[in-house]
Structures are given as structure tokens and as C-alpha cells.
Design goal:
This is Amidase C869.01. It contains 22 helices and 13 strands. With about 525 residues, it is of the alpha/beta class. The protein has an eleven-stranded mixed β-sheet, sandwiched between helices. A two-stranded antiparallel sheet has the order 4-5. A hairpin with a 5-residue loop joins β12 and β13.
Length: about 525
């Protein structure tokens, strides 16, 4: 918290001026001169149609976002770097569009996308996880998901801010803070948490600084920022999307997914990045879950009809009630029923208290050891880097305390990970416990009651999905009494993305709760 207070005090005067400018401008977007098309809240489908009608070019779209970033990012701190080649990519997309039929182009062709700053790009952008320790490092190749995005014709707009090292450095680090990016702000209520670790990806999409974005999740890092920033976060089954070239926490739980303003946009992005990658063995097996024809076919407005949805009130709905949101979610359950879903209420997940306890479940023991092993392997593969091991990063932080705010934030997670020595007896026992908790808890519940999805408020359920590599999607569901957004999450068994997409899209179309941010101080 000390670092957060320092950031606030150092920018107290400018914050008032920035906020005044934003609010006096009337909105965070504009209509392009001489065109009827408005970029604000535009979906991929809207933008593609504007391309086809010559109402918009990729260059105009990128220029617009660059202007918005210049206007808003000093306040929101959602973006660390803008790609100096973004306009060149836009021009190339516009040129290609002139000579090809629109139906022949991929859905993301000419669409700007923002990448969390732990996703590697072999270009002029840095990949640092928000840390100065990796500034200037050179990756050997694009991350697997980035290679797929380029093949789909997407424009890499830049790198999003994040909780440094994907929130795996210190227990004292504020959500959404990194030394390189600063303190990310929630665009709805600036004093509220943006949550993390994919904070900048959610902030930037919510505030219309970019069309769509990519984030990563080990345990809650997609779902939580999506919930707090009124956007859609899609956490795929582990291995559906490649983790190759992404700064790791643990390959057992890490997954890459979209953060977007709508379910349909998230699905378009998932279609572009899902699939086999020879550099990530997990994709070899998980790719069998990917349906023939992709995920777009499951954007069904009537997708809730006949779906069996489980409700675990203890503790998830109790948390919502404690926040004064109990009635909001009871109303949502009525909506689900009205749309044809079968709601199976008052269920329990075996050992839920243990699963939600990072230490008691064994998640902490296993992840610390896996982090050291996987991070060292990532660092050793870099073409160039100021650091080559976790030990080097710890030493860097001590050598440059002002850069990494080591005196205010600390690095106790790093130190605990460094003290591990591979996968020994304790780690093996922890891994077995996690496997049993997933099998006898969530997986058993889903099979016993023949559920299509579990429905919960917010993202508090994330450890349940994390330890088993299960997928989930979160959709805007309302706002608390202070105006802070809250989401509703739908999670399922491995490979159940088609059902989750139908459910989430059906809910979204029946409610349409999302609205642009108000920048409330």
C-alpha cells in the first residue's frame, strides 16, 4: 500500500487536471470526421462492416486509439508501450483489403489488439512482465499466440500494463501495479481496484483504448480484472491456447485468453489463437477439444435453453450478499430460468474451504517450485537479457531498489521460490492433493448433477478452475452501490468452451448490462 500512496501523492495535482479534461470532453470517443461510424464500444463485427463500406480504415482506427491513449493513459496507466510499427501494420492491412474479397479475410484482419506485457513479441516492443529487470531483453520468436494473431491479420497495438510478474513477486504489491507501468486505475471508479494481473488488458478495453486484448491467467488473472472493469474475460482450458513465449508462472495452470467488451469479440479472438503449437506440448492434447469449425458457431442467442446450471451458495453467493448484491444475482438466476436454463440450486463442492486456501490446498508449494523451474527455462532461452535466472532478478531488485521499489513492495514470493529445489517429496504430495481436490470436488459435482456449467458471482471461484485447468468465462453483471462493476462467471469441465460460450452469450444478449466507464473519482 505504501507504493500506491506514493504514486497518488506524486501525481495528485496532475490527476485533478487530467480528470477535468476527460470529463469536460463529454466522452471517451468521437465519431470519425465525415463518417457516420462511431468507434466507441464498436465490436469486431461493427468494425468489419465499416471496413467493407469504406467508412473506416485500419489506419484511422489505429490513429483514433493512439489519440485516446495519449488522452487517457496518463490517468489510467493501462498501456506500457505503443507499437511504433502499428501504423505500418494498419497501412498493410488497408492495402491488402483493397485487393481481396471481404469474405476471404480472417475476422481479426486489420483489427488492433493489445497484449499483456508478459506475452513475447519479436519486434520493437519489450516483453518485461512490468519489470525493469527484463527491459531490453530479446525474445527468440513471437509467442505462439502472437504468431497466430499475425497470421490472422491482427494489428499489434502495444503492450498492456499488469501486476508485475503476473502478481507473483510479493504479497504487498498492489493489484495492477508494476514499476514500468505504474498503478493501473479502474476507469469506472478510479479509487477502486482494477484487479490483476491482467489489469491493463481489461482497463484499456473497458475505456475504449483498443478493440480487444489478450491476458493470461494462472489463478484469477483474467476473470478478476474482467469482473472489476465490466468486460468479458475468457479463460480457456489449459493447452487450448499456446503458452510458448509467454513469461510463465506454472505451465500446469497458465493459460492465455481474450479480454473484450463482448462475448462475440472474445470468441473471435479465441478462434484466432486456439490450436496446436509445436513449442507447447500441452496444445498437442488440448487441441482435440477444439470443435471443427471453431467457436464462432456457438454464438447462439438461445444458448441458455436446456442448459443445466449449478449454484454453489456457500461461499460464493454469500460473498455477493455481503456486498449488498444478493438481490442482483437472484434476479440473474431468474433471467437464466426465463431463458430456458435449468438451475440446480444449493449445491456444495467437496473441500471448498481447502481449495480456496492457496496454502492448505498445496497450490502454493507446487507453484513456487514450478515458477522457479519454468522462469529459469524461459530466461535461458532469451537471445539477450540483463538477467538469466530468478536469482539474477532478485539481485537486480536489490541492486536497483529505486527502480523496483524493493523497500516498499518486497519480493518474498521470489525468495520463497528461489529456496525451492525442483519437484521433491513435498511438491509431489502437493500436486497429488491438487489433483484429488479437483477430481473429487468440482469435477465430481459437475458429473454427479450432469451440469453444463457452474454459475458464481465475481471471480472468487477462480482457484476451483485453476487447480484443474478448467475453462471459465465472465460477463458484466452489474455495479455495486459505489458504481464498481461486478461480473458473473460460468465455468465447466475441460473442453466445455462451446457450452460456456452459448451460456455466456445467451446471458449477455438477455441482459446487455455493460456500459462505458464514467471515470468516477
Amino acid at each position: 500500500m505504501a507504493a500506491n500512496s506514493s504514486l497518488r501523492s506524486s501525481s495528485a495535482v496532475s490527476l485533478v487536471l487530467i480528470l477535468s479534461t476527460i470529463l469536460s470532453s463529454g466522452s471517451s470517443t468521437r465519431t470519425i470526421t465525415n463518417y457516420a461510424f462511431s468507434i466507441k464500444e464498436a465490436t469486431i463485427k461493427d468494425i468489419k462492416l465499416a471496413f467493407e463500406r469504406n467508412q473506416l480504415s485500419s489506419r484511422q482506427l489505429v490513429e483514433f486509439y493512439m489519440e485516446e491513449i495519449s488522452r487517457l493513459n496518463e490517468l489510467l496507466k493501462g498501456i506500457i508501450e505503443v507499437n511504433p510499427d502499428a501504423l505500418l501494420q494498419a497501412d498493410a492491412a488497408d492495402k491488402e483489403r483493397k485487393y481481396k474479397e471481404p469474405c476471404s479475410l480472417p475476422d481479426l484482419h486489420g483489427i488492433p489488439i493489445l497484449l499483456k506485457d508478459n506475452i513475447g513479441t519479436k519486434d520493437k516492443l519489450n516483453t518485461t512482465a512490468g519489470s525493469f529487470a527484463l527491459l531490453g531483453s530479446v525474445v527468440p520468436r513471437d509467442a505462439g499466440v502472437v504468431a497466430k494473431l499475425r497470421k490472422a491479420g491482427a494489428i499489434i497495438l502495444g503492450k498492456a500494463s499488469l501486476s508485475e510478474w503476473a502478481n507473483f513477486r510479493s504479497l504487498n504489491a498492489p493489484a495492477g501495479f508494476s514499476p514500468r507501468g505504474g498503478q493501473g486505475k479502474n476507469p469506472y471508479v478510479l479509487s477502486a481496484t482494477p484487479c490483476g494481473s491482467s489489469s491493463g488488458s481489461a482497463i484499456s478495453v473497458a475505456a475504449n483504448l483498443v478493440t480487444v486484448s489478450l491476458g493470461t491467467e494462472t489463478d484469477g488473472s483474467l476473470l478478476c480484472p474482467a469482473s472489476f472493469n465490466s468486460v468479458v474475460g475468457l479463460k480457456p482450458t489449459v493447452g487450448i491456447t499456446s503458452r510458448a513465449g509467454v513469461i510463465p508462472v506454472t505451465p500446469r495452470q497458465d493459460t492465455i485468453g481474450p479480454i473484450c467488451r463482448t462475448v462475440s469479440d472474445a470468441v473471435y479472438v479465441l478462434d484466432a489463437i486456439a490450436g496446436f503449437d509445436s513449442n507447447d506440448e500441452a496444445t498437442r492434447y488440448a487441441s482435440y477439444y477444439i470443435p471443427h469449425g471453431g467457436y464462432k458457431q456457438f454464438l447462439n442467442s438461445y444458448g441458455l435453453k436446456g442448459k443445466r446450471l449449478g449454484i454453489v451458495r456457500n461461499p460464493f453467493f454469500q460473498i455477493a450478499e455481503g456486498l449488498g448484491l444478493g438481490q442482483t444475482f437472484e434476479n440473474h438466476l431468474q433471467t437464466l430460468r426465463r431463458e430456458g436454463a435449468i438451475v440446480v440450486d444449493n449445491l456444495q463442492i467437496a473441500n471448498i474451504d481447502v481449495i480456496l486456501n492457496f496454502t492448505a490446498s498445496g497450490e502454493a508449494v507446487a507453484t513456487l517450485a514450478e515458477f522457479k523451474l519454468s522462469l529459469n527455462a524461459y530466461l535461458e532461452e532469451l537471445v539477450a537479457s540483463p538477467v538469466r535466472s530468478l536469482a539474477d532478478i532478485i539481485a537486480f531488485n536489490l541492486k536497483f531498489p529505486d527502480l523496483e521499489l524493493i523497500d516498499k513492495i518486497g519480493q518474498e514470493i521470489f525468495l520463497a521460490a528461489q529456496a525451492t529445489n525442483g519437484i521433491g517429496a513435498n511438491e509431489s504430495a502437493a500436486l497429488l492433493n491438487l489433483e484429488n481436490l479437483a477430481k473429487n470436488g468440482f469435477e465430481k459435482l459437475m458429473k454427479d448433477y450432469k451440469l453444463d456449467a457452474l454459475v458464481t458471482p465475481r471471480s472468487d471461484v477462480s482457484p476451483v478452475y485453476a487447480i484443474g485447468g478448467f475453462p471459465a468465462i465472465i460477463v458484466p453483471a452489474g455495479f455495486d452501490s459505489q458504481g464498481v462493476p461486478i461480473g458473473i462467471s460460468f465455468g465447466g469441465l475441460k473442453g466445455s468452451e462451446p457450452k460456456l460460450i452459448e451460456i455466456a452469450y445467451g446471458f449477455e444478449q438477455a441482459t446487455k448490462i455493460r456500459k462505458p466507464p464514467s471515470f468516477n473519482p
